[in-house]
Amino acid sequence: MDANGGVQVELELHKILIMAFTFANMKYTPLLVFQILLMVLYFIFVKYGGEDDHNIRGFEDTHVMIFIGFGFLMTFLKKYSYSALGFNWFLAALVIQWALLCQSFYHMKDNTIYVTKKLLLEADIMSATVLITFGAVLGVASGLQLLFIAIIETAVGCFNFWLVADVFKAADVGGSIAIHAFGAYFGLGVSLALKGKKTKSETAENVVDLNGPSYISDVTAMIGSIFLWIYWPSFNSALTNSNSEYQRAVVNTYLSLAAATVTTFVMSSALSKHHGKLDMVHVQNSTLAGGVAVGSVCNMFIGAGTAVAIGIGAGLLSVLGYQYLTPLLTRLGIGDTCGVNNLHGMPGVFSGILTAVFASLATKEEYGTDLTGVFEAMNEEGMARTAGDQALNQFLSLIVTLAVSFVGGTITGFLARAPFLEPLKDNEEYNDEINWELP
Amino acid sequence: MDANGGVQVELELHKILIMAFTFANMKYTPLLVFQILLMVLYFIFVKYGGEDDHNIRGFEDTHVMIFIGFGFLMTFLKKYSYSALGFNWFLAALVIQWALLCQSFYHMKDNTIYVTKKLLLEADIMSATVLITFGAVLGVASGLQLLFIAIIETAVGCFNFWLVADVFKAADVGGSIAIHAFGAYFGLGVSLALKGKKTKSETAENVVDLNGPSYISDVTAMIGSIFLWIYWPSFNSALTNSNSEYQRAVVNTYLSLAAATVTTFVMSSALSKHHGKLDMVHVQNSTLAGGVAVGSVCNMFIGAGTAVAIGIGAGLLSVLGYQYLTPLLTRLGIGDTCGVNNLHGMPGVFSGILTAVFASLATKEEYGTDLTGVFEAMNEEGMARTAGDQALNQFLSLIVTLAVSFVGGTITGFLARAPFLEPLKDNEEYNDEINWELP
Amino acid sequence: MDANGGVQVELELHKILIMAFTFANMKYTPLLVFQILLMVLYFIFVKYGGEDDHNIRGFEDTHVMIFIGFGFLMTFLKKYSYSALGFNWFLAALVIQWALLCQSFYHMKDNTIYVTKKLLLEADIMSATVLITFGAVLGVASGLQLLFIAIIETAVGCFNFWLVADVFKAADVGGSIAIHAFGAYFGLGVSLALKGKKTKSETAENVVDLNGPSYISDVTAMIGSIFLWIYWPSFNSALTNSNSEYQRAVVNTYLSLAAATVTTFVMSSALSKHHGKLDMVHVQNSTLAGGVAVGSVCNMFIGAGTAVAIGIGAGLLSVLGYQYLTPLLTRLGIGDTCGVNNLHGMPGVFSGILTAVFASLATKEEYGTDLTGVFEAMNEEGMARTAGDQALNQFLSLIVTLAVSFVGGTITGFLARAPFLEPLKDNEEYNDEINWELP
Q1: Contact state of C250 with A435 under an 8 Å Cβ cutoff
Q2: Which residues partner with C113 through β-bridges?
Q3: Which of residues 22-41 of B touch A (CB under 8 A)?
Q4: How many CB atoms lie within 10 A of CB C32?
């Protein structure tokens, strides 16, 4: 090797050192560390499960909802589509790996997690909590803040899920309590804490520009909205235990969604100030409230007419929420960019209340062998719960979820204000520019 | 409560009264009444079915076709994407609830409808008739007109479906007769009656502007077109009775679609006036004609080569229709915005004729146990139909469908001209502005 | 018939002759001839298979990947979305018909191909090779060149597939060797030969304009990218033989994709020159490299931690490839518009090497009855291969694939320079204008 060669090697080494140094200082590097930590945990704790649940229903459809559904629904902002799609993907890809571990932590055998397709489905479902929270602070939280929140929220969400499912043994097949309400009120807590002392007037000027849709961004948002709507029956029915329970879940969700959709269009037009014009915000979101509202009771014997009624109620509740409640909350310092309170929050609470009502009406005569499929604790043994006890536990699981999520979200949001998470300045909100190389 | 409080209550009551009054006068309020009527009918007549058909094939894929497929295909107009997506959703959500009742009306037991996942699938399929009709008058019918037409068409379509399936006992597994041809000629009837005495020249000036695509609207339309294409094998095979019948339906539809697609590209280029350039209208629509043309015969023993031949024929027929027939019909007063005659109408008639041909060739030797699965009335009992009788019934079911749909559509279109359905003025056509709050 | 009538008939005949003459000269007419030839071959050779494989897993999901996934992923260029979607569809619709014959040619019984749903799936999978190659020359090959290349590549690809599967009996369940690496290096071969003596400097000026995305084209590309990502577990697991093998394939692919996604975001930001901004090219493509890299080993007992590790490695490899290797190859005359080398090529080679490693570690104790499902030639009979022999054959199948694909691609690309295939001039590249009627 001659002198020139030596110099070149030195130059290359120099380049590599600079790169390594730069890399160590780049903002998402802690995430690579976390990803490597996940890898190590998988090496230590995870083994392949047997054939059980290899044919679980609804996995692929739920997967579409998480990545296409949530991702595209949030592209409605005119200059935030890259962030909506990109962060949705980044967050969910991180969270599904993390949630699979956190959820299984409560059910390990011999310190081992046996991974099956069902666990993948449950990880997907848990990631929805984080994506709902993302919707509450869409455009106002930085990438690092979102990732920090996601990691905390997943752990808290899995703990709350354990309370709902294993402690209260509450029926929550479509996750309206433990997923939708949880994600929404965690998000509102984050939003409250994140904004801190900022007042609306300070930010008003620039927000006017970017906090809204363009013609095409509202069209791409519809990709997400409609796919969520289409696969919601699969989502709500995925974790049912018998074929008849499965079919009831599909039928009720289908009917509730259809009724909520019709109601949403009617209400959107009725509340318009411009000659009955329809509002895309309602159409993209309130149509889906029927899936949330029926979620936790869809496998129960509620009756087809009741499913339609629940859908009508959900559509009403959601459109009214967008029209009157969201502006009010925003003035109170609880911003909610996507209006997750109207799509996931209130309809989730509605569904939680319905579980208490229908649990109190459940009888062995009507449910037959499905009784213990739907209400795990109402089995026929000596220690079986009464319908009244089950109703109480349903109610408690809702209250606890609301408390854990809102308090957890508020604390997490407060911690997320740390400067090293690079909070956004006012003029950086709702803008892809700060996160992406734009064409 | 002090005086101030009393005044405030009064003010609130006043507000509520105004809101109630306004609401009663809003244009979509009759739809809410209809939605509540549907709820009542579901309470009275609908119960959960047993486990039968809980695992019906093709439901989710068909669901994607109805809501994503039809919805996005119709976004091709530059300034009508919100209406295409919104009304497609509104109409289908209403119709699936209504069609489930109308279809089941002919098969009630003890005045009860036992709802299963299969009934949901059939409701989805029936809603396609309304969406095809929507395509014929896309941009020229008002929202209220569309909703009025949808409610009537569903009832007439279910009656015609009963004629085809239960009276003529015709084979129509993919619905090319009772769904595609029905929807298309109902739509052309509506279009003829709706336009009334308007002449082309009167409207020409403003239509030039909005009755066409933009670069991006043609891309979003491809989302719909390709999803329709992808899931068409699932659609055509969803209601097959045996595994071998199912597999034949999938194979034939797949091959016919592929051949139609190749033929469409070749023909589109060949008929171009600009150096063989391709036309997006053909690509978005004629590619799908292969699915319609093979639809009613796809579960028969037609042979793989014949499936390819049918696809080639469908592509030819459809592109030629777009190029020469649609402009002619428009001049005759039968506008057809999406060219549903070329995608659903003529290929549907083609498929209907093919059913008569292949029914006349059907033998017990070739079909084995599938014979009565494909041709219900050709069972082995004493009263079984001959192949010739079956062919005649196939032909009659086609003729009756054409008559019922076109006459029904024309009458419905005429009724839809009533002023309270707010017919569009010429300068309101193809324009989201009148229906939507635009950004 | 009077004289006028005679004149009219003559005029009509004249028109038809002109049309026939024009048609015979149109550019895609040879494709219609090929389509008719395919029809004849289907009439002669293809019959319906029995019920076997009628319920094959993953067909519909793979179908979405081929037509929506690949199609929309390639819409990222600002002025080439119609061509990306249109040619993707045209090519795949042609190739699936052709591949079904070419693949089955090696397994005919009594000169007959018995078509089943499984054969449709395999035809879909083979068409991916052509679409990957399309990605390498996106915007720089004419429509006729693409169609010529597709027909040749399919035949060569099926031959190579036969070598891998039937001669070397290599494990390649997700096709990372015979589909991804093959398609990528065939594409680079085509790209090298197609460009010929053109130098970068000649073309630089106009290319700057169109060889890049717009804000909305990057959003539509995400539709393709995310659907590919979502259904990759279905793709990799579609051809597994047992339920436990299937579940392993799904789990490993899911974990590898998730880890690759997180890694891609981190690396994209780390390598950015602008304060850690993310690059859509990486996000749309390198996220998927995890699916390719784990593809050929996903049904083996690699362990969940290893699946995560493979994903991390794939993300690293792919982003580094986009950043440093693609510009270098372009300067060497091997253009690669979509960077297929970084998404399909190198991750495919990575996966091929992994197959040799994991084959060498395979034991009857660990695999149980899955051993011969995964490694066909390692059965228990006297002539069974040892793990070492299997590893060697895995390695050979990779080497042979690389050689056949690159040499085959280079020859095909050279032949595709024939003038009658209408090669593009420099100023016609990356432009829908020459192929499409634009609004």
Answers
A1: no
A2: C46
A3: 22-23, 26-29, 31-32, 35-36, 38-40
A4: 21
Distances (CA, A) of A357 to A161, A360, A362, A395, C16: 21, 5, 9, 9, 74
**Burial class (CB within 10 angstroms; exposed 0-12, middle 13-18, buried 19+) of B375:** buried
pLDDT in tens, A337-354: 999 999 999 999 999 999
Q: Is C213 on the interface with A (CB under 8 A)?
A: yes
Low-confidence ranges of chain B (pLDDT < 50): 1, 197, 199-204
Interface of A with B in 139-178 (CB under 8 A): none
Task: Report C:287-306 residues touching A (Cβ under 8 A).
Answer: 287, 301, 303-306
**Residue C157 scores a pLDDT above 90:** yes
SS3 category, A241: coil
Residue in C40, C86, C216 nearest the CB of B278: C86
Q: Quick check: helix, strand or coil at residue A304?
A: helix
Residue among B212, B248, B262 minimizing CB distance to C93: B262
Which chains does chain A touch, 3 or more C-beta pairs < 8 A?
Answer: B, C
Nearest CA in chain A to B216: A216
Looking at residue A23, what is its pLDDT?
Answer: 63
Shortest distance, CA B297 to any CA of chain C (angstroms): 15
C-alpha closest to that of B245 among B361, B357, B376: B376
Residue C392 token pair:
């060697």
CA–CA min distance B32, chain C (Å):
35
Please check whether residue B78 touches C, CB under 8 A: yes
- Which of these, B258, B347, B345, B354, lies nearest to B297 by C-alpha position? B354
Residues of C with CB below 8 A from A216's CB?
216
- Pick A93's closest partner by Cβ from C243, C261, C276: C261
CA distance B149 to B137: 11
Say if residue B84 is exposed, middle or buried (CB neighbours under 10 Å; 0-12, 13-18, 19+). buried
Neighbours of chain B (3+ CB pairs under 8 A): A, C
* Alpha-carbon span C285 to C125, nearest angstrom: 19
Contact C265 A54 (CB under 8 A): no
Residues of chain B contacting residue A265, judged by C-beta atoms under 8 Å apart: 28, 31, 86, 90
How close are the terminal C-alpha atoms of chain C, in Å?
45
Of B204, B217, B177, whose CA–CA distance to B405 is shortest?
A: B177
Q: Spell out the residues 6+ positions from residue B184 whose beta carbon is closer than 8 angstroms to its own.
A: B132, B133, B136, B340, B341, B343, B344, B345, B348, B405
pLDDT, position A386: 93
Token pair of A37, please? 């930590």
Nearest to A64 by CA among A54, A72, A74, A55: A72
Q: What is the pLDDT along chain A (439 residues), one digit of tens a residue?
A: 455 666 777 777 777 777 666 666 678 888 999 999 999 999 999 999 988 888 899 999 999 999 999 999 999 999 999 999 999 999 999 999 999 999 999 999 999 999 999 999 999 999 999 999 999 999 999 999 999 999 999 999 999 999 999 999 999 999 999 999 999 999 999 999 998 645 444 444 555 589 999 999 999 999 999 999 999 999 999 999 999 999 999 999 999 999 999 999 999 999 988 778 999 999 999 999 999 999 999 999 999 999 999 999 999 999 999 999 999 999 999 999 999 999 999 999 999 999 999 999 999 999 999 999 999 999 866 568 999 999 999 999 999 999 999 999 999 999 999 999 999 998 899 999 999 999 9
Count how many pairs of residues, chain A against chain B, have C-beta atoms within 8 Å: 156
pLDDT tens column, B124-161:
999 999 999 999 999 999 999 999 999 999 999 999 99
Backbone angles phi, psi at B115, to 5 degrees: -85, 130
